[in-house]
Predict the structure of alpha-L-fucosidase.
Amino acid sequence: MNQLFSLALALCLSVSAFAQSETTTTKAHDYQPTAENMASRQAFQDAKFGIFLHWGLYSMLATGEWTMTNKNLNYKEYAKLAGGFYPSRFNAAAWVSAIKASGAKYICFTTRHHEGFSMFKTRYSDYNIVDATPFKRDILKELADECHKQGIRLHLYYSHIDWYREDAVWGRTGRGTGRPNPQGNWQRYYAFMNNQLTELLTNYGKIGAIWFDGWWDQQPDFDWQLEGQYQLIHRLQPACLVGNNHHTTPFQGEDIQIFERDLPGENNAGLSGQDISRLPLETCETMNGMWGYKITDQDYKSDTTLILYIVKAAGMNANLLMNIGPQPDGELPAVALERLQKVGQWMKVYGETIYGTRGGMVKPHDWGVTTQKDNRLFVHILNLHDRSLLLPIGKQRIKKAFVYDTKQPVKVERCQTGVVLTLPTALSKDCIDKIIEVQF
Ligand code: GLC
């Protein structure tokens, strides 16, 4: 009885804590990003490359993060996984060092995925890494401390879906996990999420972004009350960017636009037909084929493919968020580590043509893309069989053009629509990305 009472009290307090805060805020359609937020958007765009980490109880099942719903696993049985979660080899410093060495400038970590398990210490549910596992360590805290120490930005993935909680309203997915009440209890679940977000934005230092996912699980007219949630985030940390992987054009109150598995403007995976907004853009993609650890999927993209993604994303004015699914023992898969190293070697030499740039004045072409920083245009030639290349830059004057790494001059001839560059014969045919720097 006592327990019940304190639970009810805690709930009332948490609901009212949030309700109170809501009354002091303005409407999201009046959303004016603060100066800190604008600066954070710039820093985000400058960063260009991040690593996504999908880690949760599902990693133990080793079949990806959707196993709970795909196999209709009972929520109470599934929760027993927590009792055996002991990632003995987890070492935040090792993760962050390896990721930093790849040239990535931020990490996005799954604090709570659709399975509903919190990978951080939360007061609002015992179903969390500290209270429900023998590991008892706040993984997010260790990761956050290490990110802050090593100077890499931290973003937090947060699922709107929860296949475990009884108060989470049923959507298209998670219907077979045995939860009793399809209607759930929205007010309660909403308060729970906002309380957790408050913890995330209070207990872990500076957070670069909250990355929402799962909006698509309900009908489009479902009221997720995002306005209030976004305001809460911006009130707690004005520089924290809000992104939502809803697969549509951005809503009011969002600071970045997310694309899943396709670069902006492309739609091969079927999740990205939406228009491109003026907000900073980010595309997320998997390093093998799955977000969460999948033991049978060793089909990792080659380092060349990964580098090409980064370059193409930059040329399309977007960041690339490349995913790795850590193993249940707490290590990053060896193949992923090797890829990180290779990408890092390339970024060390050519990073200047990526970081801090924006999509260049020449739009993406079949032959490649351009990136630009002030008066420097980097022409990334990814697929060209001829030695000459037409750059449609109109009447724009050029001071000089040269091969980026060797500084060999490149011949420039004016033509009606711009200039024709003639590449030196010595330019290696098999380099991943032939970069020509053009200065205005
Ligand atoms: C999808 C999936 C989810 C994954 C996300 C990453 O929305 O539901 O499992 O975390 O994509 O982009």
